[in-house]
């Protein structure tokens, strides 16, 4: 983005000149000579006051400057009108000198009419040049800049409740949008609704749930054997949905809405969707059916309650997690066990393959009394470290809550924990002499030299809490429902339920006109009430006993905030993938434990926030990032894992240099991991100079619906090449990633068409970057989509997004882009340059030959 020309309102150096500027919208370009500290403070000030803030220009040639913007209240657009450009020579006539803090305060006061009294209110240390350069390299979004902002808990609570409300309104708006779409409009399709479906299968077996499979109903009998692909949609597994007949409008069904089957998406394939429902729907044979996404009010309510609970907890005398909150809001410092040989590893690992950085990270987390952090760049074995850490805590007799934002991540931990010996068989203590006094010592003395494994004789249990449809089949056995079903109390509850059924049948046969029948009915009803009470009691008991016995409870963050876990207390709360979790959700579970351990990577994608305004104002800023970047103690409580086990060194080096201060190393086992068929691990396909109309990205500016037909064709050609006899790459080894959902839809349609000729195409996975986070493939093809005359790159320039896309690959990356367009962004220019220097350069024209 280039600075807009200044208008007449540029004379800001005169303090008396308080001309009232047009109120909305307003865009102020601050002096280029403002230093890093001043820019950071302005970012933070803007974030706190609801102003848009970003930087423009190049850091290298010192033309970088910060821009603060008051958007149009109605439109929320960056209209760029009323631009005020503060020229350098207005800074007391000394063009090259840094502006004074007072001068910048004046600019803020004059133009935004908000009183920024002094820059000293902000505890931000000026970065030196080197650090600044690195920062520019590993550039973050505005949210990252606001991550340094520390407020009081009451300010934070007020702000967060407001942001959660914005998010709720946006979620409802999107879901209503789907519900109100007329069934005939645009072939009945909408992102949040799928129409024209029919039930092709209904089966039981998921802990009492019914799994219903829906496909697009075929119109012509002549159509091929397989079902047509589902139209474009935004459904993902675990969404809460409602099913209803298509040809009845929503408004007309209002009387029976509550009876429409609601359930959870169990699985989604290209041409089918599976739902988990409590019961078999009545309209099993009706077609067409419509599936609608519902907003998840429950989660919102839980988050609001959690946020409100925090303030209360801090105000009260004692509450679990208070020590952690005080650190988060900076009224206390984190405590770490002091040990003479602090760097030595003082635990006996269950996993003998841990590398040095993993062991150090685990040791530090064991030593941290309040908060510990494991920073795990892609493929560095973050979850491996989490699993070992949890096992170590359990071995010390501690009870652990393990959470993550997503079900997949929780299941991953459960599966891996189940393989650790302590959870399978009884384990013997390492040092019996010291075992007895361990608890006593721990209370009094934080400088214990050697940690001791104090292991009970009983085997430890892991309980996975969550809706069965949201759990991976491999962990169903560990689910709370499965434990309950296996328990004696549950068997008794079932007997009660069966007896009740018999009694109801008997009641229905009684003739209430007969006196003796009436008397019997009254007796039977009394019995029914007793049975219902007993059934409930048994169910509750079964649940309580299961939870009580559990050494580790695993749940999503939303699950952990559920009523069922309300009274559960833990020694440690561990949050995996914490850099993708909403800060308020993490702080909610903090109140359940004495200690918090976070694992994640703030240099990969942040949590998804639907409301742009809420995201802009800080809802997508994570606690993980806030703590890692804390200048006072962030480094003390954080260990970064530095050895990656996923990708060839050539893929890793770009990410390491761009994002991780060149600190990553490739494990020997993966360092030279490549396809022998390729000369190079990296390929750059440059579309610059191709037919503009074919290669231009199309789609709205303000969303992710962009697509690029030309690039999509190149993706198909590349897949064809990989699958050919010359390369013989398996389809499930190939992943296609693109930042835009519009391009995903286009690519999926093209894949379906190609699959008719070559069935291998069916198994090629195509997804957005967000959809691929946490996953990996042998070969990754990236379609960047952006190609336009204005050289606009949009949200492609978020360093974290490209970091995730590239680091999904183990052996090969093909990057398809218009080098001219994307190179206008400094960060992407480095990426292109890296591929040029270290990979094979192919022009799209060459590829067609
Ligand atoms: N010390 C180790 N020695 C050998 N292999 C390891 C080691 N640690 C992790 N791995 C392997 O590296 C891979 C990635 O591990 P893990 O899933 O724990 O990483 P992660 O950091 O959580 O991954 P992601 O980047 O997807 O979040 C796994 O295949 C794991 O077995």
TrEMBL record:
Bias (Basic and acidic residues): 65-78
Stretch list, region Disordered: 65-99
Chief location category: cytoplasm
Entries under InterPro entries matching the protein: AAA+_ATPase, Coronavir_polyprotein_1ab, DNA2/NAM7-like_C, DNA2/NAM7_AAA_11, Helicase_ATP-bd, P-loop_NTPase, R3H_dom_sf, SF1_C_Upf1
Record flagged with keyword Cytoplasm: yes
SMART domains from the UniProt entry: AAA, DEXDc
Top-level lineage group: Eukaryota
Cellular compartments annotated: Cytoplasm; Nucleus
Keyword vocabulary terms for this entry: ATP-binding, Coiled coil, Cytoplasm, Helicase, Hydrolase, Nucleotide-binding, Nucleus
Family the UniProt entry places it in: Belongs to the DNA2/NAM7 helicase family.
Name of this protein: DNA helicase
Lineage of the organism: Eukaryota, Viridiplantae, Chlorophyta, Mamiellophyceae, Mamiellales
UniProt entry tagged with the keyword Coiled coil: yes
Sections of the chain in a coiled coil: 507-545
Class of enzymatic activity (EC top level): hydrolase
GO cellular component terms, semicolon-separated: chromosome; cytoplasm; nucleus
Reactions it catalyzes: ATP + H2O = ADP + phosphate + H(+)
Organism: Bathycoccus prasinos
The Helicase ATP-binding domain, residue ranges: 350-638
Domain AAA+ ATPase: 368-682
EC number: 3.6.4.12
An example molecular function term from Gene Ontology annotations: hydrolase activity
